[in-house]
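All the exercises in this workshop are built on plain-text protein records. A record pairs a protein's sequence with a compact description of its fold. Backbone structure tokens are a discrete shorthand for how the chain folds in space. Once this layout is familiar, the rest of the handout is easier to follow. As an example, a complete record with its sequence and its structure tokens follows.
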Amino acid sequence: MHPVIEWKNDKVIMIDQRALPLEEKFIEHSHYTEVAKSIKDMVIRGAPAIGVASAMGIALGILNAGENYENEFDNIIETITSTRPTAVNLFWAAERMKKVFAEHKHDSQLLKEKMVREAVTIDREDVEINKRIGANGQALLKSGQRVLTHCNAGALATAGYGTALGVIRAAVAEGKKIEVVADETRPYLQGARLTVWELQQDNIPVKLITDNMAGHLMSKGLIDAVVVGADRIANNGDAANKIGTYSVAILADYHKIPFYVAAPVSTIDFSISSGEEISIEERDKEEVTNFMNQRTARPETEVYNPAFDVTPHRLIKTIITEKKVLYPDFKKEIASLKE
């Protein structure tokens, strides 16, 4: 599969995920405001991929800032980080770029080289991190299992390989027979459009269901495990992920099905104690009142459209990171990652 995002000839190129799975379309960005718009408009999405886009957008801003780069830097940072408030990787990557800027801002040419190098490094590191997540998590899955996943936490949500789908890919690479059940993930259909497409590319068996079928399948013994990604994890293990994840976690808990979260350490927000402190992005109402550019509700209809929800830590069996698999007590385990 073509890279989800890449730095090429001093431009940022990314696949337009809004067009998938029917069309593979690529967008070329030559200005940081274009990158910001693509993050906001979900041309690129998924916490790790957003982090990479954040870094590349900031590097692009400095590259084209001219002599006033020091004055422009704060505006570049603000423009990029205001796009998606829930995904902590966005801010984590921005902090890394800010450190490089502070260290090299007095030498404009060296600064540009270092900023680009850091963005490309973040991109490269993400793929290796995902592979380690996969290696750590695959041991939790057994051959013959049917695994439910929500939203898209695959290569398209990262720089490559994936977090939740990385666990599945690694299990398959170990020779395990895994069948994936992907729910559609309303209202943006990341499961139907992206997860199914990715798995089909890899010839991994997958069946698509609507979001409201998960409970029925669990009650019939057709789901053996759930693996999802995360956009922000609190110090106590509460995890924010695509809206609907919380519902799946409750269903899994009721049916005594293990619920796993796969995410890099960069997705952990060490500054917050619980999920109550996570800012939840509200998106445009037309994502709910329209379907594939067709109106399904009257224009004046009022809606709720939170992009994420928070799954309490007590519903999570393990959190799979690149460093290790975390088990309850998550607060203690997460604290150990800072040591």
The domain at 5-131 is CATH 1.20.120.420 (Four Helix Bundle (Hemerythrin (Met), subunit A)). The chain has a mean pLDDT of 96.
